[in-house]
Design goal:
Two copies of one chain form a homodimer. With 321 residues, chain A is α/β, with parallel strands linked by helices. In chain A, helix 1 runs parallel beside helix 2, helix 3 crosses helix 9 and helix 5 packs antiparallel against helix 7. Chain A contains nine helices and 13 strands. In chain A, a hairpin with a 6-residue loop joins strand 6 and strand 7. The radius of gyration of chain A is 20 Å and the shape is globular. Chains A and B meet through strand 10 and helix 7 of A and strand 10 and helix 7 of B.
Chain lengths: 321, 321
């Protein structure tokens, strides 16, 4: 067996509220192995780092690599993250993290340079470096899953904002959304219509067994599939989500003048949502001409961004050494 | 008389839809003279440059300066402006400019380096360098006059957007604003409630001589003054404008995570609007904690920004020579 050179591999990690995903990649960013585990009931920072240790060991063993093969690790966290200090400032109630020094925990555990950022920001990096936004210096990545968030790239770099909270688009107030102020850790006005839970609840509030063969507890993806099959009830929910999303994109484009929006996340990549939103946005093309395209990396966007961040981290630390 | 050193003065210009304003400033940015003229009926690019020639000559004569005293000139234009190429891409219907090479026209006319930018962007520069946002690297300047626009400063620099159109906040869709798509050069949804003409039309649609001593054709400033005197009708219009403005600020802050918003423009500096908007924004402080303050430069914000841009232009051209 040819021995790989020392420290030529990196780990990218996607820490989700319910699942931890890892990828081992070489110096060119090619994925050599994947590993994932449920984080339900084990979502404290120490538990997550312990799970990552187990996953990294498994990945290295599977690739027949010695334990000193890593040059860096990078992780995306589902919350507001200070990318400079490496501290996760706050996640949603699902994990409940507050001021977790994640980068330091990772560097201590793995003995290599580490970086952390918000998971949606990492997905934006992924699309920028290897996905739908390659070569585009100004674009917005929209992650639509249970919640809704944005990763903003301006002049080729992530825009984090004064307190690392940029891209909180899920709380945007647009016509048709609730105006009631929401508490921290509660879903936002836009999420209540465009996010996965919001789509389900819009469906449930309209559901009647006379109007559809789909059950009342259908998922957002099932509802959108149903809309593509021309069910009027599902189409109504799709239209509402698409119009609300189009308004949020319109507002963001007015403000930033970004020419490209990339739709990602488990719900964002559904073709019915992307196509319908694009049509509605086109009604306002006199003012906004932004292009709207689906993610090229799909569920791998976050992990891909984490790999590129890890590669940058390895290079930067090497240059400083 | 002491002869000033050659080329130690700059001209800052604010080209408005109805008025042209000039300031002569020394190398420290201190204003040494002002001049203004109506542009009504003379708003073509050649007419404006001709007016500027007359104004500059008058200013130099009044300051007893020779004609070669200028080192640079900078102008703000009321429309989408490519600050790199110096071309005014489009102004509103009031002036109707399309692709005017303003920087080139100014350099030819005055024989000194010139720069141009959008007028609201220059006001943001003014507040950043010498006004309410000194030392703040991320903030948004909101100009509220006849229309509504934003100048966005990120990491200490103006954000212009892919096609130089960033900050078109006057068209933002928020709850309560009209959802009807608007044509180019027509007022936007937000302007219809928050802008000067919008405030007047909201007033007129509610006006009855039984409800107020103020005439039906009152100005926005008069209406807001009337609200401060506790007239319920004027307070209703003020509340509507303030709530709509607060929603736009909230949306912008969610997206950019800017900690500071500076309110300027003839209507934006009215204390009733700033105070009421701040109270409404505070209802959402669980999510957005942006500070809202009035412009420190008032009507001089654009002109001050133009002076600083001219000083930068003189220095840059000197460094390149």
């Amino acid at each position: 067996m040819t021995q790989e050179p020392h420290g030529q591999f990196v780990i990218g990690a996607d820490i989700g509220a319910t699942r931890l995903r890892l990828a081992l990649a070489d110096g060119e960013g090619s994925i050599k192995g994947r590993w994932s585990a449920s984080t339900v009931g084990a979502d404290g920072a120490a538990s997550i780092v312990g799970l990552m240790r187990a996953g990294v060991d498994t990945l290295l063993r599977a690739a027949s690599l010695p334990s000193d093969s890593l040059s860096a690790i990078a992780a995306g966290a589902p919350g507001i993250t200070n990318a400079d200090s490496g501290v996760v400032i706050a996640t949603s109630y699902l994990m409940g993290w507050r001021d977790v020094p994640l980068r330091q925990l990772l560097e201590t555990e793995f003995g290599v340079p580490a970086s952390v950022d918000n998971d949606v920001n990492l997905a934006a990096i992924g699309e920028h470096r290897a996905g739908a936004a390659q070569g585009i210096s100004d674009f917005v990545f929209l992650a639509i899953g249970t919640g809704v968030g944005a990763g903003i790239v301006l002049n080729g770099r992530l825009h984090h904002g004064t307190n690392w909270g940029a891209g909180e688009i899920g709380y945007m107030l647009v016509p048709g959304a609730s105006e009631a102020p929401v508490e921290r850790s509660k879903p936002g006005a836009l999420e209540g219509i465009v996010g996965g839970e919001g789509i389900k609840s819009q469906w449930q509030s309209r559901w009647s067994e006379k109007l559809t063969t789909l059950p009342r507890d259908a998922t957002a993806t099932q509802i959108f599939d149903h809309a593509l099959q021309s069910n009027p009830l599902a189409q109504e929910v799709l239209q509402l989500a698409s119009r609300t999303l189009a308004y949020a994109i319109y507002n963001t484009s007015l403000m930033l003048n970004s020419s490209l929006f990339v739709l990602g996340g488990t719900i964002g990549i559904h073709p019915a949502l992307c196509d319908t939103t694009r049509l509605i946005l086109h009604e306002r093309s006199a003012r906004v001409q932004s292009e709207l395209i689906p993610s090229a990396l799909g569920a791998d966007a976050q992990l891909t961004g984490a790999i590129f961040l890890a590669l940058d981290t390895a290079t930067r630390k090497l240059a400083l050494a």
